[in-house]
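Batch manifest, entry 17 of 40.
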Amino acid sequence: MMGLRHCHFFAVCDGHGTNGREVSAFLKHRLPQIIETNLKTNLAGHDLSTYPRLQAIEQAFLEGFEQTNKEVGTMGTDVRFSGSTCVSMLTYGKQLYIANVGDSRAILIS
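Output type: structure tokens
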């Protein structure tokens, strides 16, 4: 992600409803692209010697999920009764950022 060896994005998308498979497949393809674009914007000028502000990462996730949700509505598939939950994780060096949409959750066990 972003051409950085120490930055990785992962997501698990669980589709539901008649066209849930198509929605989760769309998310799998599009969400990482949108999150990466938002991170590049929000971290512009950030020197890579320190961790970014939590607000910059949080904003990239919020805007990314909002934009992806809008695109799902225009993907040409009937999504009135279909959708997908999503649990995503961004690693940035030794920092871990987790976000979810819907009723899927991530559990960190050490």
